[in-house]
Amino acid sequence: MVSAHQVNQCTWLTSSGASQMELVVIDWFRRWLEYPETAGGLMTSGGSAASLEALVAAREAAGNPDNATVYMSDQSHSALVRAARIIGIPDENARLIQTDARYRLDSEALKHAIEQDRSAGYKPVAVCANAGASSTGAIDPLETMADLCEAEGIWFHVDAAYGGFAVITERGKPLLRGIGRADSIGLDAHKLFYQPYEAGCLMVKDLGTLERAFAVRHDILQDTVWGANHPNFSDRGLQLSRSVRALKIWMSVQIFGMAAFRRAVSKGLELAAQAEDYIRNSNTLEMLLPGSLGIVCFRVNPGHADLDESALDAINKKVLVRIFWEDRAFISSTNLWEKFSLRLCIVNYTTSWDDVLETLDAIERFGNEALPD
Ligand SMILES: Cc1ncc(COP(=O)(O)O)c(C=O)c1O
Domain check: are 283 and 165 in the same one? Predict the structure, then answer.
């Protein structure tokens, strides 16, 4: 429908219906995040664009200072480092803060880095937290980081591209406590909300911060100013011409209902917990980290085989290759404490326990076959 109707959702004048629909969807997100009524946002291509727009808003809110720095964990998505680069903050001013034993940002190290930077004349413009780091699903200490940002007067951004929609479930909501204190939140409905690409979103606590950063009036758009209650989405982000990204979300919620979305997200989180139990009880597999938000990091490591780290890495790489080429599952890998880790990420609403079991079973089988004689 979006392609066939070819609506350009840049301004109210060209697309009042579609803009109204985006307002409705953004307002759903606002309520799910427990954001105040002053909050708003816009649909974006994805989490990367949301990160960029968030950092632009943060830099503008800080008065566009020289010597700007941004802070994020060493687990943050490359999208944030790239966003910092694009807004003119070089990699050496993007502070990658160390993480704890569960890959969550160490808030004492963050505090220390900010203090040091301030005394060296740097200007902190944003602190970015993960609400579901891509590698492990780690959730940074959102409340503590919000307290620090409030005390320091620094923009607090939460990259919830992966995990944000867990807030719609009973299991996920308490895990993300504090998210509503952020100045901005990046979301990806093409992840835990099962939408076709592209369905990203940036939410800001005070819509004015976005419009002050992005609205530029020029003559060709003079007819599009229709008064305070007719928003032009092009004033909120970097795109003028935009497709109608909210339609698929609006329609699928209308058709399937929120209960179906809650069930799907909960099911993914439960399947991951079940996978974790299975791995803990397996003689062949080893959990490397407690699971978080549907991501489970583990490896083949039969206790009796007494293998060193390089042998384990080699075996697990072989297993991954066999899963790719011989099995029906698509899993990925990551590195944890320099160990090669297999990584399940359950983010498809059609995934069943049989699929997960078949995958774990194949991993055990391939792992045992890869053991040295
Ligand atoms: C935590 C996180 N942030 C940002 C991104 C970037 O989002 P996108 O691929 O939608 O641009 C991703 C995933 O790709 C992600 O997992």
Answer: no
The per-residue pLDDT for range 318-355, each reduced to its tens digit, is 999 999 999 778 999 999 999 999 999 999 999 999 99
Backbone phi, psi, residue 281, to 5°: -95, 0
pLDDT recorded at residue 43: 98
Residue 239's SS3 state is coil
Of 44, 128, 140, 188, the one to substitute when testing ligand 1's pocket (max ligand atoms within 8 A of C-beta) is 188
Domain that holds residue 43: 2-256
- Count of positions (residues) in the chain: 373
The total domain count for the chain is 2
Secondary structure class of 363 (helix, strand, coil): helix
User: Do 36 and 157 belong together in one domain?
Assistant: yes
Domain C-terminal end among 200, 228, 256: 256
Residue of 48, 140, 332, 343 best suited for mutating to test ligand 1, as the one with most atoms within 8 Å of CB:
48
Helix (H, G, I), strand (E, B) or coil at 186: strand
- Ligand 1 centre to CA of 318 (Å) is 27
pTM: 0.96
* CATH number for the domain that contains residue 242: 3.40.640.10
